[in-house]
Each structure stands twice: as structure tokens, then as C-alpha cells.
Design goal:
4 strands
Length: 154
Amino acid sequence: MSRNRRKSSGNKVEALSTRLKEKKEKLQQILECLAEESARGIPIIVEGKKDVETLRDLNVEGNIIPAKTGGKTVLDVVSEIEKTGAQEIILLLDFDRSGRELMAKLKQHLEKTGLKLNSIFWRELSSLVRTEVKDVEGLAAYMETLEKKVGHLP
């Protein structure tokens, strides 16, 4: 292999390494901010129990409400949220089509309650993980994978 070709492939590895490190750091920042907001008492709405477990594994404490457990309807979830007395909630549903649909339904019902709806975390995470992670439940494994990749890069 010529020296120029080796140099070029070396630059690609460095660029990949830098991108992965930046992505991992950005994801960590978002998750830390999410944990801070939750610790301040802002409830987080996720789809299921595994999403709750994943957020706990990622050091997010506080009130995390699963929207799709125990046969809950959208109105059941809205009622549960209202009972918290919170002025704001964080919507962190899955990044796939069904997650987007559920988020739209919840927004439609929750906007009538006067609650501040925060979907910033969802947008930021969704834009970072794109097609690599389809649900909140996959975030912990994805973070581990990034950690391994970053650790093995020069």
C-alpha cells in the first residue's frame, strides 16, 4: 500500500474516532441534563417498564411514568400525569413510528391541561442516534457499544 493511501485511511480512522467520541460525550451530556431535570421533580413519560429500567441504569432517578403498561389508555396516562401536580413533563417516547404516534396523541391531550411539554430531550437523542437506536430501552446498550468502540480506537 502506498504511503498516501495509508495516510488517507489513518485520517479516516482519526475522523471516525473523533466523531464517536463527540457523539458519546454529547449523549452523556443529554442524559446528565435529563437526570438533573428529573431530580428537580419533572416527570418523564416513557413507553414501557424496560424504558424505565434503562433510564434507572443510566442514573436517571425521579418520577418516570410508563405510558404503555397495564393496558393504560392515553386518557389514563394523562390522568396519572395530572395527579403528579407537575407544571412540566418530559416526553421521552421511542424513536420509531409508534413512539412518534404516541407522542403526538399525548401532546394533543396534554396541551389541553396547560402543562409545559418538553420534547427537547427526545429531539436531541433522536437526532444523535438516528437509525442506530429505535427505542429508549436501547440507549444503555448503545452507550456501552460507543464506550467499547471509543476505547478501542487509537
